[in-house]
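Hello again,

I reread your note about wanting to compare the complex against the isolated chains. To keep things tidy I'm splitting this into two emails, and this first one only covers the full assembly. Below are the input lines as submitted, including protein chains and any nucleic acid or small-molecule components. They are followed by the predicted structure of everything together. The single-chain runs will come separately.
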Amino acid sequence: MAQKPSIPKGTRDFSPVEMMRRNYIFDTIKSVFRLYGFAPLETPSMENLSTLLGKYGEEGDKLLFKILNSGDYAANLSDEEVRQASKISEKGLRYDLTVPFARYVVQHQNEITFPFKRYQVQPVWRADRPQKGRYREFYQCDVDVIGTKSLLCEVELVEIVERVFKALGIRVALKMNNRKILYGIAEVIGHADKMMDITVAIDKLDKIGLDNVKAELRERGLEEAAIEKLQPILELQGTNAEKIATLRTVLAGSETGLLGVDEMETVFNHVEALEIDLLVELDLSLARGLNYYTGAIFEVKALDYQIGSISGGGRYDNLTGIFGLQNVSGVGISFGADRIYDVMLGCGLFPEELNSSTRAIFLNLGDDAEKVSLKLLRELRAEGLAAEIYPEPAKMKKQMEYANRRQIPFVVIIGTEELQMEMATIKNMVSGEQQKVAFSRLAEMLK
Amino acid sequence: MAQKPSIPKGTRDFSPVEMMRRNYIFDTIKSVFRLYGFAPLETPSMENLSTLLGKYGEEGDKLLFKILNSGDYAANLSDEEVRQASKISEKGLRYDLTVPFARYVVQHQNEITFPFKRYQVQPVWRADRPQKGRYREFYQCDVDVIGTKSLLCEVELVEIVERVFKALGIRVALKMNNRKILYGIAEVIGHADKMMDITVAIDKLDKIGLDNVKAELRERGLEEAAIEKLQPILELQGTNAEKIATLRTVLAGSETGLLGVDEMETVFNHVEALEIDLLVELDLSLARGLNYYTGAIFEVKALDYQIGSISGGGRYDNLTGIFGLQNVSGVGISFGADRIYDVMLGCGLFPEELNSSTRAIFLNLGDDAEKVSLKLLRELRAEGLAAEIYPEPAKMKKQMEYANRRQIPFVVIIGTEELQMEMATIKNMVSGEQQKVAFSRLAEMLK
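Full-complex prediction:
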């Protein structure tokens, strides 16, 4: 077999260094989730196609990875049947974590204690055309609470955003809006029926600019007068409190709109009272594409790195309705691990220590030293110190090179002299400094 | 949609309590791997079918989950082509972590620093008939070092087994054997060519007993005299040292066999010198089915719970040969997370604390208390204490029930009296005891 093996397009291997960085992100996010009382959940990679199909729009259906039925799936079928994918495939890989979560909640509704606070960190698969930054397999980190309408949950998510990005060292802004306000705006400009059209159009404001959004609104059937009314709302300036005050006037004619304004005000008041150290901004141009949102919506942007949003989410009042369980409100947010990774790499935010989980490596200088080294290693590991020994008595240079390439910070050398003195030479691989240390003090020195 | 949703046969949802227990196992195993200098690796869930096919035998090929090519895969194909799975599927879900690891090593051989110490904890998929204890999606926890023949690696794996199961509280025995010894035995009974037949037969000794193994050996073409010679070897009694001594005599005519004896002796000597606190037993009936092993083989059995082996592995001299990279020796072991879970559950070994990651929940007794609670919660979380508040001012009974069902150990109550006194009542949910604590001392008391 001469051909070098490869992996499918759009998928990735993660090397040890990449994994340690990724785990740092995942571990940080998960530990914050746990601080707020969220508990882990995992669902299978495969779902029945009946669970997945029709949940992500026509485009989404095409992006599902389908799994061939096992066994002689094609042997007893007519040609026509083989051509119908449903006869040869009944399962698909999950496309996101939201639909499986909704499916789980409905399936296990009698065992679950509501409000149900869960987090889920697992890969999802999309048969998208692979391109820079877009993969066919990638992780999502979702946190949701379902079974309560309390706005404390929104406040909690704001705190989670604050704490996650502070822990990672990324400066961010949290943009918020509310679908009820968007509905209110549609209502007061006389187009309550076109709420989704308006939402889809203004969602593009960031990307295509105001003029193109106006053009799209025209295409979607809004007359010039309505577009005129919309513009000043989208361009609303000032503090959150000032925007809230203006909206109260503008939306006076829309009950739903005013409800949205009240919700946002409550959240902002809590954010202020708790002195949450995060830039939280009411952004009326924020719409988010997913149409199951019904209340608050969130999006997080990195301040020091050009990239799309690195987290997003919102409240949905009827997510489980698609599986027959009506009127269970929830709210959640998803952290984009791949983009967060890119921001951290771009801004140099990964801690140096992540390059090696091993603290020290013992050189292998022959049988006698090896025996002593193995015993010392046992003691170090008992103290929780990650350490290893080069497995063969190779040339010193080769062993040092190995330590260097693995980026292990300390090398422990036990030669003939050291053996006699019951001391080890420790070499700091960054500074190059060496010092002799008694065997008994090795753990203490390496910590 | 009236029908309750479900998941594919042989797959599982993991509830929060199950997840916290599973994570406890995974975290313990991974932290031991890291103590020994192993670094994490992840490979994609999908591999090209050319990578997977032919690596697991004819039976294994049938158990691969194949993924339909995306797009209009069937539209432009003839009926004949559609029937050839290769035209409609080019990717499959990984079947184990070993073949993807071998593929990774070959593909990235120029970037890898050998000896390469990696661990990998990811799910694998097999289209097996689902039954009790056998799933179509399950996790493997593999640890391997590749690129050295040093027996220190075997010793390290023995230590890892010792430390993992000690940390989990499971009493185990490690059974070891060596493929070179098995070859030597085949050689001295005059059937070097039948080494695999003999291996496969004696691998079943545990399950079907000596008489049936003999019958199978007869079927596989061994004459009575050879079987007679084999029996005392399989039934060898005594300490490891005694068995080693006997084998030296028995295998005097086999160079390979003696090499295997030397290898085992070296490992056992290290185990003794290091005072490894683990029952390590040379078991000549241990064969392990996978035919890529060429040296030491391992298997771990739980002493207090009836179940198959809970870990297993061995040395392979040419794993990467299937992808064109010859003569790279490695050794590894895989921990069976599902079985370990069953043992821990059966023996009651999961720590009580795992039932809830939340330490305390604040009851929600109305607006004023809520505001104070949110501030206190912020302080607790800043101290690393996982805590939450019931999101709505529901009936006290309902909130207490919630705390109970979530198995949260402490409930914090801030009523009108407590508000005035700036104190909180803490209720221990296990003992039922209550005490009043100043707000400022809350973190300290809950720790």
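For quick reference: Residues 190 and 226 of chain A are 7 Å apart (CA to CA).

B.
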